[in-house]
């Protein structure tokens, strides 16, 4: 399985790698929902426990936000920075 084979998404969508019982992940979801309401750009949430590769890769970094196949944030989500990405 290639690293990207578990997710096929539209280009104009954030990917949020998260897990259950993660307060920072919950905060990231709230921010991504705000961005979605304001910009129309949605997100897809993926639980890192659904794939051993993801778990190994992101276990200590979550939440991780990806945009156009690039990790753009991890740890604490920043709404201003996410909106800035949409301006590019």
What is the CATH class name?
A: Alpha Beta
The beta-strand count equals 4
In whole angstroms, the N-to-C terminal distance is: 32 Å
| Structural domain count | 1
Strand content: 15-25%
By CATH, the architecture is named: 3-Layer(aba) Sandwich
CATH topology: Glutaredoxin
Tell me about the biggest sheet?
4 strands, mixed
Low-confidence sequence ranges: 1-9
Approximate helicity band: 25-40%
What does this molecule look like?
The chain is α+β, with helices and mostly antiparallel strands and 88 residues long. The protein has a single domain, classed as Glutaredoxin, CATH 3.40.30. 38% of the residues lie in helices and 24% in strands. It has three helices and four strands; from the N terminus they run E-H-E-H-E-E-H. The chain has helices at 23-39, 52-58, 79-87; strands at residues 13-18, 42-47, 64-67, 70-74. A four-stranded mixed β-sheet has the order 2-1-3-4, covered by helices on one side. Helix 1 (23-39) runs parallel beside helix 3. It is globular. The N and C termini lie far apart (32 Å).
List the topology elements.
Layout: E1 13-18, H1 23-39, E2 42-47, H2 52-58, E3 64-67, E4 70-74, H3 79-87
Parallel strand pairs: 1-2
Antiparallel strand pairs: 1-3, 3-4
A few lines on this structure:
The protein has 88 residues and is α+β, with helices and mostly antiparallel strands.
Task: List key phrases describing it.
single chain, 88 residues, alpha+beta, Glutaredoxin, 3 helices, 38% helix
């Amino acid at each position: 399985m290639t690293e990207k084979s578990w997710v096929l998404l539209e280009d104009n969508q954030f990917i949020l790698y998260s897990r259950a019982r993660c307060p920072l992940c919950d905060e990231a979801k709230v921010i991504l929902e705000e961005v979605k309401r304001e910009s129309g750009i949605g997100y897809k949430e993926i639980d890192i426990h659904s794939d051993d590769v993801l778990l190994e890769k992101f276990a200590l970094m979550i939440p991780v936000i990806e945009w156009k196949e690039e990790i753009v944030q991890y740890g604490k989500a920043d709404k201003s920075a996410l909106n800035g990405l949409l301006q590019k």
